[in-house]
Structure formats: structure tokens, C-alpha cells
Amino acid sequence: MARSALLNVMVQAAIKAGKSLGRDFGEVQNLQVSVKGPSDFVSQADIKAERIVRDELLKARPTYGFLGEESEEIIGTDGAHRWIVDPLDGTTNFLHGIPQFAVSIALERNGEIVAGVVFNPATDELFAAERGGGAFLNDRRLRVAARRVLSDAVIGCGVPHLGRGQHGKFLVELRHVMGEAAGIRRLGAASLDLAWVAAGRLDGFWETDLKIWDMAAGLLLIREAGGFTSDMKGGNAIFDEGSVVAGNEHIHKALLDVANRPVPSR
Ligand code: IPD
Ligand code: CA
Ligand code: CA
């Protein structure tokens, strides 16, 4: 794929931070057996990865703003551009030695996402997209899956957990979707979940209570792979609502309808 200079900067930053995470992931796997576990080590790995991404991006474009999960937002002197970064998405997986985590980097221009990179260093899979230029996994052009009905579809989701999210509301959504879909998956890194929809591995995905850095890059990947995205109400306020529903035209619509069905009366 021909990449613009900007996308190259993002790819290099993701690979550099990914190398650091990859080294630390090896260490985390060794720490599983210690009673204290690897949590402190993982928060350091996360902060280190953000520093690497931030330094690389701001070295290349010193005037752009920077919003990363692990540090104070930097407001750029260039009012139009902002980097949106999750240096380690899928922290719980990383912490438990599960190789499903990623560095996610998006570029926003005048409020719109124009480039996105999601890199999983454990599998060496690099997902990248630029607006109007298509979405790619390494050198392969991506297209969302073509399945039209939920009964054939494998659907990804996020599951709320201890102290996070709306447990009751999720159980209602799950109850409806699992009754109609061929399979449900909870893979644990939202940026990769979205990238996997772009790659046609998942036919659809929904999750609520997400942040902009979980979704920004992955959403562009899906749109550039021919997919549809909206918030849980079917609108465009994905970042404000913190919710997303995604798939091809048919699965997106079906998932939206089914997940939003009212609670059944007994
Ligand atoms: C989390 C992951 C997870 C999603 C959570 C996110 P983090 O991000 O994307 O899949 O379900 O809501 O917070 O904390 O690993 O960067
Ligand atoms: Ca995240
Ligand atoms: Ca994170």
C-alpha cells in the first residue's frame, strides 16, 4: 500500500511503542506466577508506550495536539490537528498474558478522523487506513464480511466488569443478540475488535462506555473497509455517547434493532 508521510509517521510510532510492549509482554508472562502479579509493571509499560508514541508523533508534527489515555492533553498551536492515542488497548489481556492487545493511533483533522493505525505487536498485525484510501492489514486490502443475516454472523462485544459499565443494560442487549446470532465473542481490546470487523473476522460489534481513544482508529478502518458505524441510538454521536455498533450495512442495521429491543415483559 502507498502510505502518506503522515501515515508513515503513525506506523513508525506504533511499531516503536509496540516493540517496547512486546518486550514487556514477555516479562509479564514470567511474572504471572508471582503472588503480587505484574500490575505495577504493566502500568509502567503502558506509560512508557505512550511516551514513545507521543515523542515520535510530536517530533514529526510539533504543532499538533495530543490526546492520550495516560497523560494530560496537549493542546496544539495548530488548531486543526490532534493525535488520539491509546498506547495499550487491552490492558487486562496484556496483564494476563493473553496476546490480544494493541497500540491505537488516530489523526483528527477539523473534528474528523482522517488516518488510523492499530498494531498488535504479539501477532505483528498492523491495521492502517487513510480517509479515501482504503483499509489494510499489513499489505492486504480489507473488506468487511458480506454475511447478511445475524443467524450466520459472529458478533463481538464488550462485557462490563467489576466497577465498570451498565451490567443490567448489557445483559438485556446480550440476551437479545445471543438469541439471533451464530456466535458471540468478547476479545477484550476494542480497537482490535473494530479492526477485526474491518478485516471481516467479526461480522459485527457493539459496545458501550468506551472512550474516543478506544474507537477513533478502528472506526476509520471499518468505514474504509466498506462498513457502517453508529452510536447505540443509530446516530453519529459515537464519541459523545461512548457507544458503537458496527458491521456491513445489513448486520449494522440488524444489530442496532436487536440490541435495542425493549426488555421483554414476563
Ligand atoms: C479497554 C478495552 C476493552 C473495553 C474497555 C476498554 P483498556 O481499554 O478496549 O476491550 O471493553 O471498555 O476500557 O483499558 O484496555 O485501554
Ligand atoms: Ca482502551
Ligand atoms: Ca489503554
What does this structure look like?
With 266 residues, the protein is an alpha+beta fold. The protein has 2 domains: 5-141, Fructose-1,6-Bisphosphatase, Chain A, domain 1 (2-Layer Sandwich), CATH 3.30.540; 150-259, 3-Layer(aba) Sandwich (D-Maltodextrin-Binding Protein, domain 2), CATH 3.40.190. It is 39% helix and 23% strand. The chain has helices at residues 5-31, 39-60, 91-95, 167-178, 190-198, 212-224, 238-241, 249-259, and strands at 65-68, 81-89, 102-109, 112-120, 125-130, 134-137, 140-141, 154-157, 183-185, 204-207, 228-230, 244-247. Strands 1-2-3-4-5-6-7 form a 7-stranded mixed beta sheet, with helices on both faces. A hairpin with a 2-residue loop joins strand 3 (102-109) and strand 4 (112-120). Helix 1 (5-31) packs antiparallel against helix 2 and helix 5 packs parallel to helix 6 (212-224). The protein starts with a helix and ends in a 7-residue tail after the last helix.
